[in-house]
């Protein structure tokens, strides 16, 4: 259910961008991501940029012994990951590593701990670990447009998204992508959106209720 995921990302990104606007700037660092381009398709446009919705496969290795700690091809039925680029849905190093990349391009990147899981580590990743990722970018799409997108959905401008407003938005999105769908999908997605986002259960989604972002998610 790509559209479902796209929409949820869209909701997440709204809150992220909003919090950035409120001044949570990323700290600067002296360490860089080392990027090695391992494959470039003959046609290499357009390039990914901050705010795009990207679809990628990536395998992660610990640099010190090259053990694989993550593989998008074997997790979750091997579906490539969808995420909004450059807004902190993945570790900082990956947000940087996937910039300016075209569909079909492959990269091998080395990410210092300061742009990954730092001196705390996370799960299988030990403290101060340099990470290596092999990335393949499969798709680039129009990303969410944060405040503008919220306002676009919020037809009556009351800063709350009602079921009708989101339903209307879904109808438009489905019409745009032109794929045939069982009509029940619409209802299921709508239900899912409200279950996951309408935390106070008042039947409206407030800007605050979009805040479902998990910091350390790969
Ligand atoms: C590589 O290092 C990690 C963490 O230091 C360790 O958990 C893992 O067992 C090591 N893998 C191999 C194949 O040595
Ligand atoms: C991680 O690196 C920091 C800064 O270099 C150091 O202070 C800390 O002791 C290191 N932690 C571990 C577990 O190696
Ligand atoms: Ca509204
Ligand atoms: Ca609510």
UniProtKB/TrEMBL annotation:
It catalyses: [protein]-peptidylproline (omega=180) = [protein]-peptidylproline (omega=0). It holds the Pfam family EF-hand_5. Residues 148-176, 185-218 form the EF-hand domain. Keywords: Calcium, Endoplasmic reticulum, Glycoprotein, Isomerase, Metal-binding, Repeat, Rotamase, Signal. Residues 1-23 form the signal peptide. It is an enzyme of class 5 (isomerase). GO terms for molecular function: calcium ion binding; peptidyl-prolyl cis-trans isomerase activity. Residues 51-141 form the PPIase FKBP-type domain. GO terms for cellular component: endoplasmic reticulum. The keyword Metal-binding applies. SUPFAM superfamilies: EF-hand, FKBP-like. Its EC number is 5.2.1.8. PANTHER family: PEPTIDYL-PROLYL CIS-TRANS ISOMERASE FKBP7, PEPTIDYL-PROLYL CIS-TRANS ISOMERASE FKBP7/14. This is peptidylprolyl isomerase. The lineage of its organism: Eukaryota, Metazoa, Chordata, Craniata, Vertebrata.
